[in-house]
Each structure stands twice: as structure tokens, then as C-alpha cells.
Amino acid sequence: MSFNPQEMAKDILLRYWDGSLPVNPVTIAKKLDLNVIYGGADLELSGSFDADSHTIFINEDDSLNKQRFTIAHEIGHAVLGHGSSPRTKIRYNQANFQLKEYEANLFAAELLMPIEAINYMIKQTEIGLKEMAEVFSVSSQALEIRLKRLGYLL
Ligand SMILES: [Zn+2]
């Protein structure tokens, strides 16, 4: 089976998100019957997902925003049927591009920065990028990637 990462994230938000920001990926993981454990992961990794035990391991040495993104990313691996996955600290560029990682990142961006919230803030408020990143509790880099993909930033 193959899933569309963004549609999957929207569906999960509809079912499990209470509408408050920032989106809490731990609450959503629990509603999906996924365990979230801090530590226990390989120290070289930001996080990993063990499909057999339905467990997401998070590196607690990362910043809180990074941890949130990693949890959302690992939820993506879980719901997109990717099986067990590590998430390395290595940035994925074209040379080591991997489809599953790309899909999990698309899922995470959609989950943590819901499209309705982005559209509302941009069209109805004067909010700046820095504040917007704070409201979503994401890195400004993650927000910029999201806004570029949506055509709001060049
Ligand atoms: Zn991954």
C-alpha cells in the first residue's frame, strides 16, 4: 500500500488534533498507540522507530524543537508503513536522498504546521517568520522549507 504523506497528516490532524498550537506530536503518537521513549536511541541518531514494539525513540540531547520534529517524522514512518527506521543526523541532500525520509519530512511538516493555521496567519495576521516559528514550535529552517513548498516564500 502506498500513502500520500500530506493527506495522511491532514487525516490524523482531523481525527486527533484538538486545534491548539503548537501541535503536540507526543499526544498524537499516543492516540495512534505508539510509545515515545526519550533516550535509548543510538546517540548518533535524532530518533528511530521500532515497528515491532511500536516505539519511537528520541534523542533527548537535541533541542526541543528538533525533538518535536523528529517525533512527528517517526510518526510518519509508522503511519506510512515504512517499517523500522533510523533517523540520522546527516542532512539528506541529493546525493543521499531517500524517498522514505523525504516522505516522513513532508508528513512531519504537515502535522506540525497545519495548512489551515499557516493560511490563516499569512492572510489574516501580520505575524513575522520568527514569531510564526515560535507559535508552531519549529525551527525557522523547518518553517521556511514549509512556506517555500506552499509558494509563500521564494
Ligand atoms: Zn526517517
From TrEMBL:
Residues 31-148 form the IrrE N-terminal-like domain. Pfam families: Peptidase_M78 (PF06114). It comes from Taurinivorans muris. It comes from the Bacteria. The lineage of its organism: Bacteria, Pseudomonadati, Thermodesulfobacteriota, Desulfovibrionia, Desulfovibrionales. InterPro entries: IrrE_HExxH, Rad_response_metalloprotease. This is ImmA/IrrE family metallo-endopeptidase.
